[in-house]
Amino acid sequence: MVTPFEKRILEERQRMSESSDSLRRRVEELAPGAKSKEVLLKTLQYESSGHLDFALFPCPPVIDHGEGATLYDVDGKEYIDLHAGFTVNVLGYAQEEINQAIKDQLDKVIQFAELPMEPRAELARLLVEHTAGDFEKKVMWAVTGGEAVEIAMKLARWYTGKPLIITHWGDYHGRTAGAMGLTSKAFMMAYSYPVPPMDSGIVKIPFPYCYRCPFGKEYPSCDLFCADQFEKMFESKETWLNNPKARVVNVAAMLIEPFQSSAGYILAPLPYLKRMKEIAEKYDFVFISDEVQNGMGRTGKLWAIEHAGVAADLITAAKSLANGLPLSVVIGRKEILDSWGPGAHSSTFTAYPAACAGGVKLFEVFDRDHILESAAEKGAYFLDGLLDLQKRHRSVGHVNGLGLYLSIELVKDRRTKEPAAEASAWAARRLLEEGVICIYSGYFYNRLCFAPPLVIEKEAIDRALRILDRVLGEMEERFQTQFS
Ligand SMILES: Cc1ncc(COP(=O)(O)O)c(C=O)c1O
Q: 145 CB under 6 A from ligand 1?
């Protein structure tokens, strides 16, 4: 007998899985050319449908090569890249100096058993010396962002001897078994059935998504009401966080994205982040900034948390460290990183030598070409363009931007803020057809996010804004009965 609960789960599974036939139909209808179609059909024939590609795009582009911030697919179609592979390709494509450094290392030795090598030690030095914070620092290497997050969790619990990790609803920290407990995405929960993420030491609090404040307040007149509510959780014995009478705080760490990336490039107010750090200091737990997506210069500073004028105890970084090769790291307080012993964590491809060699060169280019300053300046220019679009398009309810980390939120009505999800999906698809690759996301599937390689030219930003202007106009026309 199937219970009503099981029936609902089965329906949900049915809704989430999509047959190869249906994916093939998408390819037949939408592939931009014969070569793209051939590769996509081969992919569908031989690869699991569980990959991300067809979740991100109705018909994913088949990239052949790139140059700077421009991509070309296998049919020769040109795209302005406002995605950068979720910020991986920070200095763009075919960056000769970085590619040469990687090739040179490959010719020397590709990999050997996680053992120390010169480029890795040098990149550790560069990361430590470039990271703000008036205290001694070290790094611990890994391969993926999710793994860096898991190291940070393990390390914070090891160092403090405490169980709880606080994070935000809406944060994304990866999909490995440990990191998945921190990540909030309802559809991912369904992939855990019948065993939910097993870490019972994770506590989630609302993220300060001020455009849709979870407490119904307005920023800044709210006076950071959300932060006060959080601190109240430490005042009584009725939460897990603290037992004031016994003077036992159970929290090992707060591990957050300073700005929520996968949830739609949403900026937290900087005073909120500062306040979180103060609370961490007051109750003596580790403050961890997960900068896998918004670190490495994306926001115009090396690390996003620097904007709040505070230094995190630990930072997790990955994606952009080596301009495209897999590499991740935890950077932070020496006393935390030195609190455990040899072999505490291991992963075969840790600190992949070619990736480290690329990372060393990347820092050289960052310093020489003033990449941070230029990202801040181009980001301000892009933001002005988006604010201008907001004046002319009633559908643009909200604009966020810091450096080259930008987004717009599309709504049916600016007063009610009703999400324009269907129209947003249509706009994302039209942008791709028009040769603009961006990130489509949002709590309500209604945010378009822009994260170009930091080397994008202003001329390409102008072109992208013109296309966005046209597509928003078409969208408002097509869905006019939905907009007021
Ligand atoms: C903030 C953040 N943390 C962690 C991760 C996980 O990184 P990876 O996919 O390399 O495991 C991501 C990936 O998007 C991320 O954006």
A: yes
